[in-house]
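PROTEIN DESIGN WORKSHEET
SECTION A - STRUCTURE
LENGTH: 165
C-ALPHA CELLS:
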C-alpha cells in the first residue's frame, strides 16, 4: 500500500453550486503539464519518478476535474496538482513509497474505460452515484464509485485487464 494513509492528500466532494464551468482534463494533459516548460521544475530537478496518481470526479470519457501526481526527484518529493489549466505543488512527506509508475507505458483512463464500455456505462449512468475517482498505485488502477458506500473496481494499469480486489 501507499504507506501511512494520513499523509495522502484529502479530497472533498466537488461543489458545482456556483455553476462555474470547470475544464475536464485528461491524465495525459496533466502529465504533459508536469513535464512542460511552464512548470519547468522537472528540467531543473533531474531524474524523477511518479509513484501515485489520483483523478477526482472522473467521467465516462476518463477525464477528471483535477489530477494529483506524487513525484519523487533526486532532491525532493512533492504532489503536483493540475486543474483548470493551472497547477500547484505541495509537500509529499511519505517515507514508504509505492513502486514507480511507468507513465509512458500505462493505459490512460479514457482508453481503460473504453476497454470496459459495458461496466463504465452502468457505473457512470447510475444517478445514485455521488462520487467517482480513480487512482493509480503499484501498477493498479482503482476506480472508486460511491453511492451510499464505496465500490472499487481494479484494473492492471499496463494491460487494462480487470483484477480481483
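SECTION B - SEQUENCE
RESIDUE ASSIGNMENT:
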Amino acid at each position: 500500500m501507499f504507506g501511512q494513509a494520513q499523509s495522502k492528500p484529502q479530497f472533498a466532494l466537488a461543489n458545482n453550486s456556483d455553476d462555474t464551468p470547470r475544464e475536464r482534463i485528461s491524465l495525459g494533459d496533466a502529465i504533459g503539464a508536469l513535464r512542460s516548460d511552464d512548470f519547468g521544475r522537472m528540467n531543473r530537478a533531474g531524474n524523477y519518478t511518479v509513484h501515485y496518481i489520483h483523478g477526482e470526479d472522473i467521467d465516462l470519457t476518463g477525464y477528471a476535474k483535477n489530477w494529483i501526481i506524487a513525484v519523487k526527484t533526486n532532491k525532493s518529493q512533492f504532489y503536483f496538482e493540475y486543474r483548470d489549466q493551472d497547477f500547484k505543488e505541495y509537500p509529499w512527506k511519505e517515507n514508504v513509497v509505492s513502486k514507480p509508475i511507468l507513465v509512458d507505458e500505462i493505459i490512460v483512463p479514457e482508453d481503460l474505460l473504453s476497454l470496459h464500455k459495458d461496466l463504465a456505462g452502468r457505473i457512470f449512468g447510475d444517478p445514485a452515484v455521488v462520487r467517482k475517482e480513480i487512482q493509480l498505485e503499484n501498477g493498479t488502477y482503482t476506480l472508486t464509485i460511491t453511492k451510499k458506500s464505496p465500490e472499487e473496481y481494479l484494473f492492471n494499469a499496463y494491460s487494462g485487464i480487470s483484477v480481483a480486489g
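SECTION C - NOTES
The first strand starts at residue 48 and ends at 56.
Residues 1-19 have pLDDT under 50 and may be disordered.
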